[in-house]
UniProtKB/TrEMBL annotation:
InterPro entries: Thioredoxin-like_sf. SUPFAM superfamilies: Thioredoxin-like (SSF52833). This is Redoxin domain-containing protein. It comes from Alkalicoccus halolimnae. Gene3D superfamilies: Glutaredoxin.
Amino acid sequence: MSELKVGEQAPDFTLPAVSGETYSLQDDLQQRPGWRYIIYFRGSW
């Protein structure tokens, strides 16, 4: 995947949450409209 350009929509993704539930970007946007900051830390851990 390449970087997003200004104004482009991020693709939907689902990740495990700390609580044990799953987090879906699309579900979150539907429940709470607004801006999101998504920070991705890439590492070898």
